[in-house]
Amino acid sequence: MNIVLTIAGSDSGGGAGIQADLKTFQELNVFGTSVITALTAQNTLGVEGIYPATSEFVEQQLNTVLQDFEVKALKTGMLFSADIIKTIAKNLIDKNIQIVVDPVMIAKGGQALLQDEAVQAMKNELLPIATVLTPNIPEAEKITGMKIETADDIQQAAAKILQLGVNCVVMKGGHLEGPSAVDTVFFQDGSFFQLKSKRIDTKHTHGTGCTFSAAITANLGKGLSLKESVIEAKKFVQMAIENPLNIGRGHGPTNHFAHRFGANVEVEIVE
Ligand SMILES: Nc1ncnc2c1ncn2[C@@H]1O[C@H](COP(=O)(O)OP(=O)(O)O)[C@@H](O)[C@H]1O
Ligand SMILES: Cc1ncc(COP(=O)(O)O)c(N)n1
C-alpha cells in the first residue's frame, strides 16, 4: 500500500482542502494521511471563518504521522502563516519524500487563506525543497511579482519560479480564457510541455486546484514519473469538472467519483 500525506486546511464544505485531498487519494488507490493547518467554516458560498492550528501542533501532527508511516509523497495546500510554513519546511528538509506544493492563497470567494507575509517564507523555505509547484495565474503573479497575461509571461514567470529551487512548475491555466484549459509544465533542464483539455463552462470549480495537486501526489506515491503523474492528474480533474455533482448553492465541488464510471476524457499533450 502506497502512503501519501496532505498538509492543508479543512474545508467543512467537503469540496476543497483536506477533504478534497483525501477523497482524491482514496479514488486513486493510495492510503491518505493528513496534517491539518487550519479549520475553515466553509461552504460553496464562501469561507465564514478560519481557526488556525498553532505551528507546534502542526509539527506534532507531522512528526506523529512520519514516525509511523513511510510516506512516499506529500502535498501542501492552505498553510495560512509564515510560522506554519517554516515549521513544515524545517521538518521536511532531511526527509526523502516528494513534495507537491499547491500555493493556496485566496479562496474562490475572495477570502485570504495565506497571510501576505507568508509568501516570502514559502519562497525561501518551502520551494527550495519542493518537487513540484502548481500555481494558478494569480498565485504565480504573487510569487514572481509579475503581471501574467501572455504565453511569454507564463514562460518568464516559470523561469523565475524555477530559480527558487523547485524541480518543476505547473502553471495552471484555469483562470485564463479561451476554449481550452491549458496547463504548462516546465522543468529545470529547460524542457516544457502543455496539457490541453476542453474548458468546461461551469461554476462548479471549487477545489479544482486541490484535487489536481492531490492527484499528482497520489500518482507520485504510486511510483509514476513526474510527467506521467501530472498528465494523469489533469485527466482526473478534467473528469471531475466535466461531470458536476450540482450540489450547494454557490461554486459547487468537483466530482471525485467521476472516473469510476469510465468517464471519457480528452487531454492533449503538446510537446
Ligand atoms: N472550467 C474549466 N474547465 C476545464 N478545466 C479547468 C477549468 N477550470 C480549471 N480547470 C483545470 O483545473 C485545474 C486547476 O486549475 P485552476 O482552476 O487554475 O486552479 P485553482 O483551483 O488553484 O485556482 C487545472 O488543471 C485547470 O486547467
Ligand atoms: C481549506 C481550503 N483549502 C483550499 C481552498 C482553495 O480551493 P480551490 O482549490 O478551489 O482554489 C479552499 N477554498 N479551502
Number of helices: 8
Small molecules held by this entry:
adenosine-5'-diphosphate, (4-amino-2-methylpyrimidin-5-yl)methyl dihydrogen phosphate
CATH architecture: 3-Layer(aba) Sandwich
CATH homologous superfamily (4th level) name: Ribokinase
Topology, number of strands: 10
Mean pLDDT: 96
Question: Could you say what the CATH topology is called?
Answer: UDP-N-acetylmuramoyl-L-alanine:D-glutamate ligase
Helix/strand structural class:
alpha/beta
Strand content: 15-25%
Low-confidence stretches: none
Radius of gyration, taken over Cα atoms and rounded to an integer in Å: 17 Å
Across the major sheet, the strand order is 3-2-1-4-5-6-7-8-9-10
Largest sheet: 10 strands, mixed
CATH class division: Alpha Beta
Q: Helix proportion of residues, in percent?
A: 25-40%
Compute the separation of the termini in Å: 33 Å
Shape: globular
How many structural domains in the coordinates?
1
| Helix and strand sequence | EHEEHEHEHEHHEEEHHE
Pfam family, one: Phos_pyr_kin
Organism: Ureibacillus thermosphaericus
EC number: 2.7.1.49, 2.7.4.7
GO biological process, one term: thiamine biosynthetic process
Structure description:
Strands 3-2-1-4-5-6-7-8-9-10 form a ten-stranded mixed β-sheet. α1 (17-27) crosses α7 (208-221), α3 runs parallel beside α4 (118-126) and α7 runs antiparallel to α8 (226-242). It is globular. It has one domain: UDP-N-acetylmuramoyl-L-alanine:D-glutamate ligase. It is 35% helix and 24% strand. The protein is built from eight helices and ten strands. A hairpin with an 8-residue loop joins β7 (168-171) and β8. It has helices at 17-27, 55-68, 82-92, 118-126, 137-144, 151-162, 208-221, 226-242, and strands at residues 3-11, 31-43, 46-52, 71-76, 98-101, 132-133, 168-171, 180-187, 192-198, 267-270. It is an alpha/beta fold and 271 residues long. The two termini are 33 Å apart. Adenosine-5'-diphosphate binds next to β8, α7 and α8. Keywords: ATP-binding, Kinase, Nucleotide-binding, Thiamine biosynthesis, Transferase. One of its GO terms (cellular component) is cytosol. One of its GO terms (molecular function) is phosphomethylpyrimidine kinase activity. InterPro entries: HMP/HMP-P_kinase_dom, PM/HMP-P_kinase-1, Ribokinase-like. It is an enzyme of class 2 (transferase).
